[in-house]
Design a protein that fits this description.
Largest interface: A-B, 40 and 34 residues
CATH class of the largest domain in chain A: Mainly Alpha
CATH superfamily of the largest domain in chain A: MetI-like
Shape of chain A: flat
Oligomer: heterodimer
Number of strands of chain B: 11
Strand order of the largest sheet of chain A: 1-2
Helix content of chain B: 25-40%
Radius of gyration of chain A: 32 Å
Number of domains of chain B: 2
Structural class of chain B: alpha/beta
Helix content of chain A: 55-70%
CATH topology of the largest domain in chain B: D-Maltodextrin-Binding Protein, domain 2
Largest sheet of chain B: 11 strands, mixed
Number of domains of chain A: 2
CATH class of the largest domain in chain B: Alpha Beta
Number of strands of chain A: 2
CATH topology of the largest domain in chain A: MetI-like fold
Shape of chain B: globular
Largest sheet of chain A: 2 strands, antiparallel
Distance between the termini of chain B: 33 Å
Number of helices of chain B: 15
CATH architecture of the largest domain in chain B: 3-Layer(aba) Sandwich
CATH architecture of the largest domain in chain A: Orthogonal Bundle
C-alpha cells in the first residue's frame, strides 16, 4: 500500500506528525515566556488590579443595612412605602430587636453612618435609639411603636422608613446616582435638590479645563518641539535641559512657585503695578481660581506634550520641506500641507498623555484652584479621606475611569491609536 | 508623606528604668501618629522624650493625622494595624469610635488621677466627649488680622469679618461649612445659644448662606491650617481664620504685624485614640504611654511649647512660660478666662449628623 505523498502528514524525527510536534514546541515556548513574566504579572495583579477592582466594587456594595438589620429589612418588604403610612407594629418590633442585637455587637453606629449619607440625622438617631433599646426587654416591653417614637420623633416620620427600605438591598445603584447629583427614592431616581447639585458641574469643569490645558500645551509646546528638532545640536541640547528641568523639581515646589508668581502681592502683579499697567488698587486675581489652575497645570504638563512631539518631528526629513518649496509651495503651504500632517501622531500622543494626566490631577488644583478651580478628583479625595463615604468616592472614580476609556476609544476610532507615536 | 522621626533613648536608661512605666509584657517600639510641625515638636518635648527616657521605648512618629480616619479604616480592613496611638480631633475620634476602629477607654482605670486625687473622669469633665477619646488640648479656630492693613480702628468682633465697608480687602476662610455657618448666623443676629437650632432648619441654612453671600467675592477659601498664616504674612488677606497656635507662631515667633480677634473663637478638642485590635503587648504599651502622657504634669508641659490649653482642669494652674521665648503662655490660651468669655463651643453631634449634607450644599454654593 503506497501512501500518497501529498496528503500524508509530514513526520518529525520521532514519528509524530510535524504539525503536532511544532505546535507542542511553540506551546512550550509560550508557557516558558509566560512563566518568565509570571512574577511580574502576578505582582501587577495583586498589587494593582485587585486593589483597584475591590475599591471600585465598593461603589455598588451595600450589604451593611441588610446584615445589621435583617429582620427589619425582611418585614419592610411587605410594607408599601409609597402610600405615605407608617409601617405596622411588626416592623417596629423587628427594628427594636435588630438594634438591640446590633448594639451588643457595636454595629448600630456603622449602619447609622451609612444611612446618614442618605438622610441627615440618621447617625444620631441610631446612637440615641440604641442607648434606650439596650435597656428594653423584647418580650415584656412590646408594643414598640409608641416607645420608639418617644425615643426619637424620626421613628414617627415616614422618611427614615423610606430611606431604610430603599437602601436595604445588598447591591445599590445609590452611590452612582449620588455621583451624578441624583438620589434613590421610593419612587425611583430623582435629582438632588438644586442646592446640593455640584458633582456634574465638577465633572464638566474637569473635562473642559483639561481640554483647555491640553490646548494650551499644544499651542505652547509645538514651537518648542520644533526648535528642539531643528536647532543645531548644541543649542537644542541646552533647550532640552530647560524642558527637562521641571521634571527634576518637585511638583509641590513648582506649584508653590506659581503661587508666589501669581498672587495679588506676587511677582507678576508687583511688576505690572511698577510699570504702571495696573493700578495698585486693581491688582489682577490670577490665583485661587480657574486661571491659576490652568497656568500651573499647563506648566507642569508641558514636557509631556513637548517630548512626544519632539521625537516625532526629529524623524521628519528636512528635505521634504525643501522639496515642497522647490515645487513652488509658500512657507505656509509647505508647513501646513507637508510638515504638519506628519507631526499629527506626535500631537496625538502628547494630547492623550496630557489630557489623561490632567483629568485625574489632584494636588495642583487643590493648592492653586481656590473654590472655582478644583477638579472632580478633589471631591474623590474628600470622599475617601475626609467624609469616609468610600462608596461615593468609588462611584466618582469609576465614572472618571469610564469617561477616560470612552474618550480613548473615541480617539482610537477617529484618529486611530496606531497613529500615535512616542518616537521612532 | 511618612516622614518618620526616630527617638532613641539610651539603652542604659532603659535597663535602669524600674519605674511604674516599665512594664513586663509590652512592646519596646511604638508608632505614634500626629500632625507634624510645631505640634509634633511640642509632643516630642513634653511626652515622647521623657517617656523614652524612662522606659527605653523607641517611638516612631508618623505625621498622618490629617488622613488618620481613612487610613485606620483601611488598616482595619487589611487586618494589619501599624499604629499604636493616634492623635485626632474630637469629631473624627467620635466617628472612629462609632465605626469600632478605636478602643473604648475607661478613665478610672486607664487614665492617671489628678494630683489632688480627683478622678480622671472628673478632671477631664466635659472634655470626655467620646468613650474612645482621651483629650489632650483645647484649640480654637479664630481670626487674625494684619495690624497695618485694617485702617485706624482694629477689628474686635468676629462680625467685622463680614463688614466689607469698614474693612475692605480679602479675608481667608476654611472651605468647609463647619465654623463658617456658625459665624454667619452669629453675625446675622442669632444668639449663640440658638445657633444650632436655627441651623437645623432650612430657613436657617438659607440665612447663613445669604450672610456668607455678602462676603463671598472677598474671600480666599483655604483648606489647610498653614495657608492663612502665609496669606497674612504676604499681605494677600487682611484677616483670616486659622488655629490659634498657628497665629501665635506668626505673631510671637515670626514677629509679623498680625493680631488676634479672640471673639467668636470656636473651640475644639484634640487628643488620642488607641486603635482597636492591637496585640496585647502593643495595647499594653499604648495604654502605658497614654497613662503617662495625659497626666496633669505632661499636659501642662505641652503648653510650654504651643499655646493650646491643656484638657485637664488640674493642669491649668501649671501653665507657665514658653520654653524658648520665655513669654507668659496663659494669655495665649483659648481657655484663658478673657478669651473663653467670647468663645463658642462646637456642637459635635450636630456636625456628626449634618456634615455630609452641609458639605454638599457648601461645595455647591462655592462652585456657583
Amino acid at each position: 500500500m503506497s501512501v500518497n505523498p501529498i496528503t500524508a502528514p509530514l513526520l518529525a524525527a520521532d514519528g509524530t506528525p510535524l504539525k503536532k510536534s511544532l505546535g507542542r514546541a511553540l506551546r512550550r515556548q509560550k508557557i516558558r515566556a509566560l512563566m518568565l513574566i509570571a512574577p511580574l504579572l502576578l505582582f501587577v495583579f495583586v498589587a494593582f488590579v485587585m486593589p483597584i477592582v475591590s475599591m471600585l466594587f465598593r461603589s455598588v456594595e451595600n450589604d451593611i443595612v441588610a446584615n445589621t438589620l435583617p429582620q427589619t429589612v425582611l418585614e419592610l418588604k411587605s410594607w408599601n412605602a409609597e402610600l405615605g403610612e407608617l409601617p405596622p407594629e411588626i416592623v417596629y418590633a423587628a427594628i427594636a430587636s435588630d438594634i438591640k442585637i446590633a448594639a451588643k455587637a457595636k454595629k448600630h453606629t456603622k449602619v447609622g453612618l451609612r444611612l446618614n449619607y442618605e438622610q441627615s440625622g440618621a447617625s444620631s438617631l441610631f446612637k440615641k435609639t440604641a442607648r434606650q433599646v439596650k435597656k428594653w426587654d423584647l418580650d415584656a416591653d412590646a408594643p414598640f411603636k409608641e416607645k420608639l417614637i418617644k425615643v426619637h420623633k424620626s421613628w414617627g416620620q415616614i422618611e427614615i422608613w423610606q430611606t431604610l427600605k430603599v437602601h436595604s438591598s445588598n447591591y445599590t445603584s445609590g452611590y452612582f446616582l449620588n455621583a451624578i447629583d441624583m438620589r434613590k427614592t421610593v419612587s425611583g431616581p430623582e435629582f438632588q435638590p438644586e442646592e446640593k447639585q455640584v458633582l456634574i458641574l465638577l465633572f464638566k469643569r474637569t473635562l473642559i479645563m483639561s481640554l483647555i490645558i491640553m490646548g494650551a500645551c499644544i499651542f505652547l509646546g509645538y514651537p518648542v518641539a520644533w526648535l528642539l528638532a531643528n536647532l543645531p545640536a548644541r543649542q537644542s541640547n541646552l533647550l532640552m535641559i530647560l524642558v527637562l528641568l521641571p521634571f527634576w523639581t518637585s511638583l509641590l515646589v513648582r506649584t508653590s512657585a506659581w503661587k508666589v508668581m501669581l498672587q495679588q502681592q506676587g511677582v507678576i502683579n508687583d511688576l505690572l503695578v511698577q510699570i504702571g499697567l495696573v493700578a495698585d488698587s486693581a491688582r489682577l486675581v490670577m490665583i485661587n481660581n480657574e486661571t491659576g489652575t490652568i497656568v500651573a497645570m499647563t506648566h507642569i504638563l508641558l514636557p509631556f506634550m513637548i517630548l512626544p512631539m519632539y521625537s516625532v518631528m526629529q524623524t521628519i526629513p528636512p528635505t521634504y520641506l525643501r522639496a515642497a518649496k522647490s515645487l513652488g509651495a509658500t512657507n505656509w503651504t509647505a508647513f501646513w500641507r507637508v510638515y504638519f500632517p506628519q507631526t499629527v501622531p506626535g500631537i496625538g500622543a502628547g494630547s492623550i498623555l496630557v489630557f489623561i494626566l490632567a483629568i485625574g490631577y489632584y494636588i495642583t488644583p487643590e493648592i492653586v484652584g481656590g473654590s472655582k478651580g478644583v477638579f472632580i478628583s478633589n471631591r474623590i479625595a474628600y470622599s475617601i479621606l475626609k467624609s469616609l463615604n468610600w462608596g461615593l468616592g468609588a462611584a466618582l472614580a469609576s465614572i472618571l475611569l469610564f469617561a477616560v476609556l470612552i474618550l480613548y476609544w473615541t480617539y482610537d476610532k477617529i484618529v486611530g491609536i496606531d497613529n500615535v507615536k512616542l518616537g521612532g | 508623606m511618612l516622614s518618620r522621626q526616630t527617638i532613641l533613648a539610651t539603652a542604659a536608661l532603659s535597663l535602669i528604668a524600674g519605674s511604674a512605666f516599665a512594664g513586663g509584657h509590652m512592646s519596646s517600639e511604638m508608632t505614634i501618629v500626629s500632625w507634624g510641625g510645631a505640634y509634633s515638636k511640642s509632643q516630642l518635648k513634653a511626652y515622647h522624650e521623657p517617656y523614652s527616657a524612662i522606659t527605653g521605648v523607641t517611638i516612631l512618629n508618623d505625621e498622618s493625622s490629617g488622613t488618620a480616619t481613612a487610613k485606620l479604616r483601611a488598616m482595619n480592613e487589611a487586618n494589619n494595624i501599624t499604629w499604636d496611638v493616634v492623635d485626632v480631633e474630637a469629631g473624627p475620634a467620635m466617628q472612629l469610635c462609632d465605626e469600632g476602629l478605636a478602643m473604648v477607654i475607661d478613665p478610672d482605670t486607664m487614665l492617671a488621677r489628678a494630683p489632688n486625687d480627683v478622678s480622671a473622669a472628673d478632671d477631664f469633665g466635659d472634655m470626655l466627649v467620646s468613650e474612645c477619646f482621651i483629650p489632650q488640648i483645647v484649640y480654637s479656630t479664630t481670626f487674625g488680622y494684619r495690624t497695618d492693613l485694617v485702617g485706624s480702628t482694629a477689628p474686635t468682633s468676629v462680625c467685622d469679618v463680614f463688614d466689607i465697608a469698614a474693612y475692605p480687602g480679602k479675608r481667608s476662610l476654611f472651605s468647609y461649612p463647619i465654623n463658617n455657618m456658625e459665624w454667619a448666623l452669629l453675625c446675622d443676629g442669632v444668639a449663640k445659644a440658638d445657633i444650632y437650632d436655627v441651623l437645623e432648619t432650612s430657613d436657617g441654612q438659607d440665612r447663613a448662606f445669604a450672610k456668607l453671600d455678602t462676603i463671598r467675592d472677598h474671600v480666599i477659601w483655604v483648606d489647610a491650617g498653614s495657608t492663612t498664616p502665609q496669606l497674612l504674612a504676604d499681605g494677600e488677606v487682611i484677616m483670616g481664620a486659622t488655629y490659634n497656635g498657628r497665629l501665635f507662631a506668626l505673631i510671637e515667633e515670626q514677629k509679623q504685624p498680625v493680631a488676634m480677634i479672640w471673639d467668636g473663637q470656636v473651640m475644639d478638642l484634640d487628643g488620642w485614640i488607641i486603635p482597636a485590635g492591637l496585640s496585647p503587648e502593643r495595647q499594653a504599651r499604648a495604654l502605658d504611654y497614654i497613662m503617662f502622657a495625659t497626666d496633669t504634669t505632661r499636659l501642662a508641659d505641652q503648653s510650654k511649647w504651643i499655646p493650646y490649653g491643656p484638657a485637664r482642669k488640674s493642669s491649668a494652674p501649671l501653665v507657665g512660660k514658653h520654653a524658648e521665648l520665655g513669654i507668659d503662655m496663659a494669655p495665649h490660651m483659648p481657655t484663658n478666662p478673657v478669651n473663653l468669655e467670647r468663645a463658642f463651643l462646637m456642637n459635635y453631634s450636630f456636625w456628626a449628623d449634618y456634615r455630609d449634607d452641609f458639605d454638599a450644599k457648601f461645595q455647591a454654593w462655592l462652585a456657583k
